[in-house]
Amino acid sequence: MTTMTPTIFPALFISHGAPLFALEAGSTGPALTRWGQGLQGSGHGLRGVVIMSPHWMARSPAVMTNPAPATWHDFGGFPSELYALQYPAAGSPALAAEVMALLARAGMAAAGDAERPLDHGAWVPLMHLFPKADVPVVQVALPASYGPAQVLAMGQALASLRAQGVLVVGSGSMTHNLREFFGGERAAEPYVLEFSRWVEAAVARGDKNALLDYRRQAPHAQRAHPSEDHFLPLFFALGAAGWGEAGDGVVRADYLSREVMYGILAMDAFALAHSPETA
């Protein structure tokens, strides 16, 4: 008798940059589209996406249970073309119930939100990843009081979904200092590259202690992230991937993009999966 090994999807971290990423895709948008096409064309059933965005922050864990979430243009002062965009993906109350059950089992009881729309931290990267909007989406709130270790634990609580046809995504930004945003393309600031490559190296060697303490150990951490809300979804993806867990093998990061937009927004995106030699 042959035993079938279940397909385990990678976890994914995406830098969603500025809202204009929806229109100005750079090289990151096409890279996400190619990766999404490969995932959907793999023959393994993808039944949903669970995504955390820093543009939904709540006092405590919360999960979108809306079966038909609206596309929320939660920004101002951009071209009219941006406000005309829609991302009509369905929600999934059934998947949302699974997410809430797993979080509750890990001691993080979450409330359901049946009115929650998709904010741009979710729909902008997803419109590149799955442009047909044909994959149901469940969004998870980032609790405002949580730090890296707690967000990592949220991801760990949902890791089992990856073997059940679910793609777990952290959507944030590798660097996010909008005080330095002046528009227009220019050379990448050195601190952006130094911070991003420090993170890449820490992820590659599985150095959980260093990454959890990134605000003290990473070069230019305070400048790269004056507030850490856009960096925390990285820990959600890492936790869902089983990264840094003793005895769980090596988790590699397969980079889809290392682009820098506007000189200051590192658009790093990578999939996290176990190395075949160690899985």
Characterization of the model:
The protein has 279 residues and is of the alpha/beta class. It has one domain: Protocatechuate 4,5-dioxygenase, Chain B, CATH 3.40.830. The protein contains 10 helices and 10 strands. A 6-stranded mixed β-sheet has the order 5-2-6-1-10-7, sandwiched between helices. It has a two-stranded parallel ribbon with strand order 3-4. A two-stranded antiparallel ribbon has the order 8-9.
Please render the helix and strand layout as text.
Blueprint: E1 11-15, H1 28-40, E2 48-58, E3 62-64, H2 80-84, H3 93-105, E4 111-113, H4 120-129, E5 137-143, H5 148-157, E6 166-172, H6 190-204, H7 208-212, H8 214-217, H9 221-224, H10 232-241, E7 251-257, E8 260-261, E9 265-266, E10 269-274
Helix pairs in contact: 5-10
Summing up helix and strand content along with how strands pair, one would put the structural category as alpha/beta
Number of domains: 1
Profile the largest sheet: 6 strands, mixed
Strand content: 15-25%
Rough outline:
globular
CATH level-3 fold name: Protocatechuate 4,5-dioxygenase, Chain B
Evaluate the radius of gyration.
18 Å
Number of strands: 10
Mean pLDDT: 93
- Write the element-wise H/E pattern from the N-terminal end onward: EHEEHHEHEHEHHHHHEEEE
Strand order of the largest sheet: 5-2-6-1-10-7
CATH architecture: 3-Layer(aba) Sandwich
Helix-residue proportion: 25-40%
